[in-house]
Amino acid sequence: MAEQYIKHSDLVSFAADNVNIPQDKLKVYREQVARLKEKLEAHIKDHPDYDLVKVLHSGSVAKGTALKTLNDMDLAVYVKKTEENPDEEKLLEWLIARLKDAYKNILKPEQFSPGTHCVKISFRGTGLDIDVSPIIYEENEEDKGYLINKDTGNRVLTSIPLHLKFLQERKNKLPNHFRQSIRLLKWWNREQKKLDTNFRFKSFMVELICSHLLDKQIDMSDYSIAMEEFFLYIVKSGLKERIYFTDNYNANKLPGTRRDIIEIFDPVNPENNVASMYTEIERLKIVNAAHSALDAIYEAKFSTTKSRAVERWQEVLGSSFNL
After folding, report:
1. CA distances from 14 to 110, 194, 210 (A)
2. Residue 174 vs residue 48, higher pLDDT
3. DSSP track, 82-94
4. Which CATH architecture has domain 8-17+164-317?
5. What are the residues facing 40 on neighbouring strands?
């Protein structure tokens, strides 16, 4: 058997140099978010229609899966209804007004823009975007509440603390390696999107597939094996296998019949298939990309030269991968 040139230690070094966000950069970003949090708390409490309940950090930084290329952070604002029939479809408009007021002497109006569930604030100094998502608080111990889709008005049940707890419990089973495997696979995902702007694969879906594999006792302490198993799962299942978790609900709460092409259910909300909008073409693109990555890893494993092994890994992790 030929010598295996690319080892776990090589992926550890690559992740440290290229994938993981530096702590000094993370400190600057967290300070920016903290300042926004303070200003938001000071302004939102005076609004007559909604009251502030709490402001929580969310997203990849809070979960520990952020990449070095991070340029946005997430903040969840829990708000409580105080009118009998508030107009939820105008919630983002209200939030933009409050944010503009909070930063009226600092930021320009064009630095605020509405998304589907959030308001994006673009800070020119640091280049950081902060996505502020209002959540209608349901006054329960698990901090469950509803995101409002501004286009449809639909409510999506969520809980920031339960999402963070879900990932933390899996991180506790495999400290460092679980989240590092996720970051490497998110890097692969990023490379696919650079090659094809129509390639769709949510980072949240990557996290949930990794969580599913960890729950199935797949070894993630060796990153080359972890990535290989991730791609192998996608290729073998074709993403036609229903993925769900019973941390926060029973399986009988899921829809009784298959409704979507890909079904990966939110670990907090059994009614929320996070892949519900994916088409058959998009499913096939993910499967084909995983197949190519798997072939590259297999060939690298049995390459007779180091240069060839590196070339094949570059097909997975991009041209920055080098030894």
Report:
1. 38, 19, 20
2. 174
3. -SSS--GGGHHHH
4. Orthogonal Bundle (1.10)
5. none
